[in-house]
Design a protein that fits this description.
212 residues; 4-stranded antiparallel β-sheet; 4 strands; globular
């Protein structure tokens, strides 16, 4: 345990010494010039890339390392046919034409894995508190969904995150018999920039933030 702790500390110090921040290109790719896409190029997103995407996004922090996110990457025609009836009308074409639609869900029974996800915890506060487990799963699953978007952009993919679907119908189609509940959807692929519109406004710092 001491050796593993020492290695973790040394690695963190080495990274912070070598990389202080993302450069302008990285910030443009992930945030400043990144856009939400609704139309897609005819380019495949391979399974290996989706595995790489998960292996990056899973490293983002969650409370007590609870890691409640559960993801279904909908790629096949059969899976898209199951997804289609659950979508709002305005989301059908953009989703059926996307190479992949990620269903971002969260597992209300995430606490069953806490013994190995968080072995430092002396007790499991979620096991006997369904309300706390649900709040924790939703909050941290949402965080992990955001990490997925950031990781996807960092890997060169474009994203089209959305709600606009029937959660209950989708859960029945993909998560029946489990404790997993859907949160939001995110189309993934290589967007068609020729169909973009000007970026919508954002708040200025003073409209949304305080420094106290």
């Amino acid at each position: 345990m001491d050796d593993a702790r020492d290695r973790a500390r040394a690695t963190a110090a080495e990274i912070k010494g070598r990389i202080q921040s993302l450069g302008a290109d990285g910030l443009d790719l992930v945030f400043r010039e990144a856009r939400t896409y609704r139309t897609w190029q005819d380019r495949d997103v391979g399974d290996d890339l989706l595995r790489q995407l998960f292996d990056i996004m899973k490293l983002g922090p969650t409370s007590a390392n609870c890691c409640p996110a559960r993801i279904v990457f909908v790629k096949s025609a059969e899976a898209k046919a199951r997804l289609k009836p659950t979508l709002a009308a305005g989301n059908v074409d953009k989703t059926m034409n996307a190479p992949v639609c990620a269903i971002l869900g969260h597992d209300l029974a995430f606490h069953e894995d806490m013994s190995w996800l968080a072995p430092h915890m002396k007790n499991n506060p979620f096991a006997d508190n369904a309300a706390l487990a649900e709040t924790t799963a939703f909050r941290n699953g949402s965080l992990q969904g955001a990490y997925l978007i950031i990781a996807a952009r960092a890997l060169g993919l474009d994203c089209g995150a959305m709600s606009g679907f029937d959660n209950a119908a989708l859960d029945q189609a993909f998560f029946a018999g489990t404790a997993i509940r859907s949160n939001f959807l995110c189309n993934l692929g290589y967007g068609d920039p020729g169909q973009l519109h000007p970026r919508a406004p954002r708040h200025a710092f003073d409209q949304a933030c305080q420094i106290l």
